[in-house]
Amino acid sequence: MQLEEPIQQLLYKHSCIVVPGFGAFMAHTAPAAHDTGAQQLHPPKKSLSFHPRLNHDDGLLLQHLLKSWSGEISQAKAHIQATAEEWKTALESGSSL
Description:
Blueprint: H1 4-13, E1 16-19, E2 23-30, E3 33-35, E4 40-42, E5 45-51, H2 60-68, H3 73-92
Antiparallel strand pairs: 1-2, 2-5, 3-4
C-alpha cells in the first residue's frame, strides 16, 4: 500500500499529517478573494508545505491506514517506517518524490 493516497485523503480533512520519522505535511487554506481593481473573483485555495522536524507520531496516519489495512497494527507501523526510510533515501540521493 502506498502512503501518498492516504496522506492526500487526510489533507482534505486535517491541516497537518505527520509521517512518523519523516516529517509533516501542512495544508494552508486561503479563502476566496475579490480583486476589485481587476474585477476578478479568486476561488478558495489550499497550499501545502512540509516540515521535516515535525515527525513525532500523532497516530492519525496509522489510524487511517488501519481502516483499510488487513494486517496488524505492528505491520502497519512497520510499513509507515519503511516508507519513511525509503523516502529519505530517495531525497538524499537527489531524487524527488
